[in-house]
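Here is the promised in-class demo. Please do not try to memorize the tokens; focus on the logic of going from shape to residues.
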């Protein structure tokens, strides 16, 4: 009976080891076949394809028959149209059509009239596609007489120009995702870019004039680089050349706090209603939605046009930080009003426009760069931390955590290794038992 039980135990152990080998092999195969996960700490949305559909329809139908596009809460594309023929074309393309009174041409004409009026610091306006209006806002610094003059201009344009007062103050915001410091103040690294020869940090233009020297710590022991180009006001972007011409490790990752990061896979154009994320050193990773495009803000330093308007909160210390969605780089933080306790409005300088003006492109993992407006499936386009920011997959995650992460090969390899050890162990145990049994029998025969 004892020998029978031993045989049963050995057989069960061998079957368990063989089963473990098959399970581990299946886990490894699935991990290899699946999409390799990049460092990511932010949720991903599915709005980019819907945005592309809406943009293509607007471009095909023209500004006289459409009035913008956006993404609804379910992620479907919606296009504002001015006639039934355009609405039919939108529906045939699989998008939702919303008939409105005023075309994109009218909305842009109204914005041009506002830009031609005397400039009033503390005011801003943007095209609200969903409401089919131009919304004009004035912060608490705008005097009663200035606001009265601006509302008079708005009323003369038409009823589709809406005015409202807002809390807080429209200001530029210093600092950001990974801090860089100079005598002008503390600002933020946005995205790493290259001109094919040297590497740069693309950040906000109001951070400092050309010639500003930037450091990675308050003691000034680690020099990052020098501002070599930029535009502010008018636009809000600048280029900081690395002191050693190289961005270093982590150039394709945006830091989001707590040693984590998000790998960027391309550049993109935002859509109204799209879910977006912003990273900053003061308020960390924050999410929200794009509320309007082609926004104009009259900062105390001057007017900036063509901005992305969002309801993502920001605070002093978040300027220049990266705006991204679905792994696509969208812009850098310009300014806004409010804070993350009460909420507010934050504006961003679009990234493709800035890169085209500066003659640079995002740094891509594994190759030099990608053109603005493109994506690189399977590759990783540069994000924006200062070199040395720890991110998962780049030295910031312990080996054990990576081995036990079910998204990686580690679990499958551990199961395979354990099964092999068990199989070898059972075989050795059986061999040793057989050897002892033979010795006992041999000794009995000669005794």
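The designed amino acids, position by position:
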């Amino acid at each position: 009976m004892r020998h029978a039980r031993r045989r049963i135990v050995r057989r069960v152990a061998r079957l368990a080891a063989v089963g473990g080998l098959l399970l581990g092999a299946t886990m490894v195969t699935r991990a290899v076949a699946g999409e390799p996960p990049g460092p990511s700490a932010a949720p991903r949305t599915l709005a980019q394809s819907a945005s592309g559909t809406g943009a293509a329809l607007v471009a095909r139908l023209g500004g006289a028959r459409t009035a913008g596009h956006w993404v609804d809460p379910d992620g479907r594309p919606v296009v504002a149209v001015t006639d039934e023929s355009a609405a039919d074309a939108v529906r045939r393309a699989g998008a939702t059509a919303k008939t409105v009174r005023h075309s994109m041409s009218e909305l842009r004409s109204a914005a041009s009239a506002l830009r031609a009026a005397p400039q009033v610091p503390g005011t801003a306006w943007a095209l609200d596609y969903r409401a089919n209006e131009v919304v004009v806002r004035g912060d608490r610094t705008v005097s009663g007489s200035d606001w009265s003059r601006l509302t008079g201009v708005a009323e003369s344009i038409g009823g589709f120009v809406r005015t409202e007062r807002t809390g807080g103050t429209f200001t530029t915001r210093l600092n950001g995702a990974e801090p860089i410091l100079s005598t002008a103040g503390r600002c933020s690294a946005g995205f790493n870019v290259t001109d094919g020869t040297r590497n740069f940090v693309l950040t906000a233009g109001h951070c400092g004039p050309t010639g500003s020297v930037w450091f990675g710590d308050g003691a000034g022991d680690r020099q990052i680089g020098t501002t070599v180009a930029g535009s502010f006001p008018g636009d809000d972007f600048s280029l900081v050349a690395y002191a050693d011409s190289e961005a270093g490790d982590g150039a394709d990752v945006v830091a989001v706090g707590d040693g984590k990061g998000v790998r960027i896979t391309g550049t993109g154009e935002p859509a109204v209603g799209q879910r977006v994320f912003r990273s900053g050193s003061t308020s960390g990773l924050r999410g929200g939605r794009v509320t309007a495009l082609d926004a104009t803000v009259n900062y105390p330093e001057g007017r900036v046009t063509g901005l992305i308007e969002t309801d993502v909160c920001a605070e002093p210390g978040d300027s220049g930080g990266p705006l991204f969605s679905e792994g696509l780089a969208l812009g850098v933080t310009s300014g806004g009003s409010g804070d993350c306790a009460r909420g507010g409005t934050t504006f961003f300088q679009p990234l493709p426009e800035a890169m085209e003006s500066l003659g640079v492109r995002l740094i891509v993992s594994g190759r030099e760069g990608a053109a603005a407006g493109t994506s690189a499936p399977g590759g990783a386009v540069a994000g924006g931390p200062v070199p040395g920011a720890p991110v998962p997959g780049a030295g910031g995650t312990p080996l054990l955590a990576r081995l036990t992460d079910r998204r990686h090969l580690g679990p499958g390899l551990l199961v395979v290794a354990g099964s092999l050890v068990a199989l070898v162990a059972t075989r050795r145990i059986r061999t040793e038992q057989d050897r002892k049994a033979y010795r006992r029998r041999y000794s009995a025969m000669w005794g």
